[in-house]
Amino acid sequence: MTEETTPITFETSGMDNRLVSACNRLGWKFPTAIQQLSLSGGLAGKDLLIRSRTGSGKSASYLLPILNRLLKTKVSQRKSSQIINNQFHPFGIILVPTRELCEQVEKQIEELSYFCKNLVFALHIIADIPIQTQKTRLISQIPDIVISTPTRLALLMKQKIIVLKENLQVCAIDEADLIFTFGYSEDLNHIVTHMNRICQFYLVSATLSTEIEEMEKLVLQNPLICNIKETESNKLLTQMAIKVTEDDKFLLLYVLLRLGQLQTKALIFVNDLNKSYRLKLFLERFSISSVVLNNELPQNTRNSILENFNRGNFDIMIAIDENIEKKNKIIKSLGGDEKKKDNKKNKTKKKSKKEKEKNNKNDGDSDGEEDNNLTNEKQNEELDEKFLKKKQKKKKDQELIQNTKKDEEFGVVRGFDFKKIKTVVNFDIPKETTSYIHRIGRTSRAGEVGTVLTFYTLDEQDTMIEINKKVQKEFQQKTMQIVPNNNSIIYLPFPEKKVSTFRYRINNVLNSITKNLVKDARIKEIKREIINSKKLQSHFKKAPNDLIALRHDLHLQPNQINKNLTFLPNYLFQNQKVPEGVHERKRKKKNRKKKKTHKKRRRNNPLKSFRVD
Ligand SMILES: Nc1ncnc2c1ncn2[C@@H]1O[C@H](COP(=O)(O)OP(=O)(O)OP(=O)(O)O)[C@@H](O)[C@H]1O
């Protein structure tokens, strides 16, 4: 903490009463530590540099002062100054790294302005909407605050649709560290050099980097530095790591889930898309439902998944946290794979056609076999037709994957406000420390308890040590401590004894999930969610504030599930205590079955069912 302040409440902060009521309505009793620091400076119109751990309430620490400032200016005055020469001059802009965060910030503004709805209007602009439609929207609706990713805003500025020189009063760059890691530096520089620099500036970030320090010097004028020493949250987040082999990751996760040692709601991070579906299929084989969230899915589906996960309708979410560069590689490799396969198929088809022609020729040579020839021809035609149909289907699937453009503004795992996540599992170790920090920030939010479990292989041992060192250093340097034991990660031994008896059945299941099965599952999911997305769209039209609970966690290959795998016989536990509840369902079912057969037998036995009335 760099500046001493006396603790304030929302009521004594000097904020507009309607904003105070909105905080109370959300059940917020006191401002969080970072809000305590930032509110007074923000309300006084100072530039702020807000640095605090993920989940500490940073968004409201800049949104509340921005809204307060808006409420001080008359609506009519604001509106008239925002349209000049058919160009849009917003009062405020908020920059975030992903479209999910655009929507999240817009929603939070709606909640915080609950008691002054008609007076404040925020609009997020995203890449889906054509530029001209966006222009018409901005000019007709005249939002006070525009929320955008740097790329989209820079584009609209270059087209002279949005101008920031004259009217801009406030600008916030949220998740600034991510904005740089997502590669937005160029767009950000364009925005900053073409904006009114005497506006009030908020630079908000969970971690520090040289780029942020440079940006700080460039845009902030005599800023109030809000840095937080989070001693309280020390007790809330526990970080653990286990060294495992690649296949044992599946085994360990299964055992932890099955024995109830991994608390849900759980968010599981993997580094690539195919692996996420492999994990989903693996869990599905044991009747454990999960939902995969990735940037191939349509936007409506993603929103619905996130909303329903936050509402507690699914317990396990598998999320992909891949690099932007890596994403492009995957698209290419997928297209390449499919192409290679198609070439192979074409060759085999040509070969079989040649063989057929050869056979036909031979057949034709033999005397009196016209009938045979006819049936052969017919069979060949049928074969050809089948083959063509198969090929057409394959082509359609391939087109579907290639046309399902990955959303570059997607980054759900970072910065999104997940509610009540008990455990974050790094099934794959993140490649960078910043990514690790953002992943762990999805749990232990808003003062809640959370656990992080990281799996790492022998090859990743150095990365793990590096992450551990950097996390300690980062948090100590910035006077933010987030974990006990001197901020370090606790290394746990691999529980070989506990899991060894399960290894055989796990390996069997894993071997049955082939690459082709994973690909099919992925295609099936995309198809299903495209249909879901249409349903959701029509639903949103009727009830825009509602999100129906579509089951996004349905099994992808239900016919492959072996019900016996859900039963855990005692011998699997060797000398260990059988955890409570593991066999319960089976036993209950058995009893029910017994009663039923007993009744049936009685009914069929005339001596027992006979009655004299
Ligand atoms: N004063 C408060 N009292 C209780 N809960 C709060 C308060 N302020 C914010 N919250 C809640 O805390 C959660 C985290 O807030 P927020 O998303 O703003 O954190 P953050 O620091 O921006 O996290 P990240 O860096 O991950 O984006 C949200 O669910 C929010 O509703």
Automatic annotation (TrEMBL):
<keyword id="KW-0347">Helicase</keyword>
<dbReference type="InterPro" id="IPR014014">
    <property type="entry name" value="RNA_helicase_DEAD_Q_motif"/>
</dbReference>
<dbReference type="InterPro" id="IPR027417">
    <property type="entry name" value="P-loop_NTPase"/>
</dbReference>
<dbReference type="InterPro" id="IPR001650">
    <property type="entry name" value="Helicase_C-like"/>
</dbReference>
<feature type="domain" description="Helicase ATP-binding">
    <location>
        <begin position="39"/>
        <end position="226"/>
    </location>
</feature>
<feature type="region of interest" description="Disordered">
    <location>
        <begin position="335"/>
        <end position="384"/>
    </location>
</feature>
<dbReference type="Pfam" id="PF00270">
    <property type="entry name" value="DEAD"/>
</dbReference>
<feature type="compositionally biased region" description="Basic residues">
    <location>
        <begin position="342"/>
        <end position="353"/>
    </location>
</feature>
<feature type="region of interest" description="Disordered">
    <location>
        <begin position="578"/>
        <end position="613"/>
    </location>
</feature>
<dbReference type="InterPro" id="IPR014001">
    <property type="entry name" value="Helicase_ATP-bd"/>
</dbReference>
<feature type="short sequence motif" description="Q motif">
    <location>
        <begin position="8"/>
        <end position="36"/>
    </location>
</feature>
<keyword id="KW-0067">ATP-binding</keyword>
<feature type="domain" description="Helicase C-terminal">
    <location>
        <begin position="414"/>
        <end position="490"/>
    </location>
</feature>
<feature type="compositionally biased region" description="Basic residues">
    <location>
        <begin position="584"/>
        <end position="605"/>
    </location>
</feature>
<protein>
    <recommendedName>
        <fullName>RNA helicase</fullName>
        <ecNumber>3.6.4.13</ecNumber>
    </recommendedName>
</protein>
<dbReference type="InterPro" id="IPR011545">
    <property type="entry name" value="DEAD/DEAH_box_helicase_dom"/>
</dbReference>
<comment type="similarity">
    <text>Belongs to the DEAD box helicase family. DDX56/DBP9 subfamily.</text>
</comment>
<dbReference type="InterPro" id="IPR050079">
    <property type="entry name" value="DEAD_box_RNA_helicase"/>
</dbReference>
<feature type="compositionally biased region" description="Basic and acidic residues">
    <location>
        <begin position="354"/>
        <end position="364"/>
    </location>
</feature>
<feature type="domain" description="DEAD-box RNA helicase Q">
    <location>
        <begin position="8"/>
        <end position="36"/>
    </location>
</feature>
<dbReference type="GO" id="GO:0004386">
    <property type="term" value="F:helicase activity"/>
</dbReference>
<dbReference type="Pfam" id="PF00271">
    <property type="entry name" value="Helicase_C"/>
</dbReference>
<keyword id="KW-0547">Nucleotide-binding</keyword>
<keyword id="KW-0694">RNA-binding</keyword>
<keyword id="KW-0378">Hydrolase</keyword>
